[in-house]
Amino acid sequence: MANDDRVLVGFDGADDAAVVRLDGDRLIVQTVDFFTPIVDNPYQFGQIAAANSLSDIYAMGGTPLFALNIVAFPINDLPKTILTEILQGGADKAREAGITIVGGHSIDDKEPKYGLVVTGEVDEQNLVKNNGARPGDALILTKPLGTGIIATAIKKGKADSDQIDAAVLSMSTLNNAAAEAMNGLDVHATTDVTGYGLLGHLLEMCRASNVSANVDFSSLPYLPGVRELAESGVFPGGTKRNLDFVNEYVHFQNSLSDIDQLLAADAQTSGGLLIALPNEEAKKYLEIINISAPFPAVKIGHITNITDTFISLY
To answer: Domain ends where: 126, 146, 167?
Structure first.
């Protein structure tokens, strides 16, 4: 990366978004994300993709300002009404976040893809990165896991309506309330849980902070029916790759089955925030966020001094 004193967070780390100084303590936060459809409903897909893109801004403690569409669509093979619904879903979710989609770019492609470039801002004193976790910190997770498994079940026709509804609600829920609840608290590190899964993103936090983490598997929240789907062999390829990658850095207690390990590594879409903060602050955070959250945030473990394995799952 070329030297530029204005760049506070770039691609040399594993944070969620780029951060560049605008002037004084004002910082610009920018991110981009897009993917192929994970649900059958085009409007819901647009909402999920937009919420997922916005999440990186919230994870850095920022406030979104505006967004640009990124669209790939087989314009001659699928009805244009599908594209309209996708874009409407994204626009409505952006409006919920208090911003406008001001433009974008599209290409003709065989497989639909959609997402956003999101620009936000944050005062330097409110910037939260993933490298500040400290021994003794509690770990809070603000959304349930299992969206990767349910998305795969949808593709295979094995997900029931309750599972689909719960997954869509989770994935389309903005992380703005989860981020706002951090205001005024002594938050040490934050990231959002997406494609690398809980273990992958926690590993990034631990590495960046030079600490380790203990996670209580029994405390991990899951969407309804996820374990049953997993036990029937429904897993996305990304979940298996996640587990293969983190395996050498995670100590799994002997009582945890192969299914348990895969569940903890499930690749998420538009997942919740993973937050490290002192125990007393964690109690305050849970009291604030759980007043109105559609899914309860939970404490899943704590940060320790660094050991020979970055994560212990017990």
So the answer is: 126
